[in-house]
Amino acid sequence: MSGPRGRAALLLLLLGLPGLLPARPPSGGGRPRYEPSWGSLDARPLPAWFDEAKFGIFIHWGVFSVPSFGSEWFWWYWQKEKREPYVKFMEANYPPGFSYEDFGPLFTAEFFDPNQWADILKASGAKYVVLTSKHHEGFTLWGSKYSWNWNAVDVGPKRDLVAELATSVRSRTDLHFGLYHSLFEWFNPLFLEDATNAFKTRKFPTSKSLPELYEIVTKYQPEIIWSDGNGNAPDTYWNSTGFLAWLYNDSPVRDTVVTNDRWGVGSICTHGGFYTCSDRYNPGHLLPHKWENCMTIDKRSWGYRRNAQLDDYLTTEDLVKQLVETVSCGGNLLMNIGPTHDGRIAVVFEERLRQMGAWLQVNGEAIYGTKPWRAQNDTVTPEVWYTFSPKEGRVNAIFLNWPVSGTLKLGEPQAKLGETQVKLIGYKELLKWVALGEKGMAIALPQLTPKQLPCQWGWTLQLTNIN
């Protein structure tokens, strides 16, 4: 372990042990220093930008995009669980002895244009993006020093995909750039050895997972670390608290970085920054802690699937509904797309993203920077969701169904005669309304042709001066 590489490795081993973090005195502003314990780390306030952003795009891209069949869990389902559709797919389409590693060189990304991706992301109205820097297959989309010959610079594209996307997103958009990173790797021999030892040994985190995390933070300075894949190991095995203390105290992103809750068995929905609780988590009621609904446009997979049917994709109407429900209940929506092995965002995903952007162009003021109101949804009319704009002191009522009668009844807002004003976003005139006493109010919607409607799905009423 002599020489600079040996010293670096030793330092990383030290960084992997709780309590041996490089201490640095607080800066002039007296920034608090966090201890490597959940009690201390959980007390860190979540940087404000995350709650204000409301909407992000998740990108699942990797070697699994080559077979692009079934799921991004292709390797596991084929080799470990030996699920019949996967086994048959391989037998029918690949020669005997073809291994998952042989998909690596076929992950070519020849059509990957990071500027085009950044422009699509910007057009979606999202305020942050999270890219899978490494999924459970262990293949890194950057040239990691700790993933020899199983990374995008050495195999396949021969390009640093993380660096290229980070540069384009930062130079062409105002989106915050984030990275997903899987702690465990399905078939890594070091991880399997540690697992056999009931995680009493820590060869894998100290030589692979932790060094990679320090590497992506120092190299790419992501403002979101979206951790996943605990491999049924506790956070002490991963030294998650040690890493997070460094991230919050000494890393180049210490002031702006946000993290999720997937840091080891028992941490999900309990510890970390924002809570994800489970995939596609959408509780439908207010939570006391900031949370995120990570979900997929393709209902069956996070990675791209060549065999997807049109009705496997959520419609824009479905996606608007997810966003509105999530934001009303205090959450953020992280909406996933899966690009192809050759680096394209499939046209169906691009259309969904651009349509979300068009909807947000009209209704964004009822989403971005809002807070939950005292009621999340209406008690009289279903599919009406509320947000509150604190600066303007305004209640936003987003209704997903345009009433046939032309009158919208709202049970929650208590209107004040001569004071309350009702405006439909995207329509010039103020709307007429009548108070229904304890039962809320009835609002006369304008008679509009389809072309005159402010948008196609989900409309927003802005209510000022209500009790």
Describe this structure in a few short sentences.
This protein has 467 residues and is of the alpha/beta class.
Structure description:
The structure is a single chain. This protein is an alpha/beta fold and 467 residues long. Helices cover 28% and strands 15% of the residues. It has helices at 3-15, 38-41, 48-53, 74-80, 84-93, 114-123, 161-172, 189-196, 203-220, 235-238, 240-249, 316-328, 347-363; strands at 55-59, 128-134, 176-182, 224-228, 258-259, 291-296, 331-337, 384-389, 394-399, 407-410, 421-424, 433-435, 441-444, 459-464. The strands form three sheets. Strands 5-4-3-2-1-7-6 form a seven-stranded parallel β-sheet. The protein has a four-stranded antiparallel β-sheet with strand order 8-9-14-11. A three-stranded antiparallel β-sheet has the order 10-13-12, with no helix packed on it. Strand 2, helix 7 (161-172) and strand 3 form a beta-alpha-beta unit. Helix 1 crosses helix 9 (203-220), helix 4 (74-80) packs across helix 5 and helix 6 packs parallel to helix 13. The protein starts with a helix and ends with a strand.
Distance between the termini: 70 Å
Rounded mean pLDDT is 94
Question: Which parts are unreliable, with pLDDT below 50 for 5 consecutive residues or more?
Answer: 1-25
Radius of gyration (CA) equals 24 Å
The structural class is: alpha/beta
Helix fraction by DSSP (H/I, runs of at least 4)? 25-40%
Elements, N to C (H/E): HHHEHHHEHEHHEHHEEHEHEEEEEEE
* Strand numbers in spatial order across the main sheet: 5-4-3-2-1-7-6
In terms of DSSP E residues, the strand content is: 15-25%
* Total DSSP helices: 13
Main beta sheet: strand number and arrangement?
Answer: 7 strands, parallel
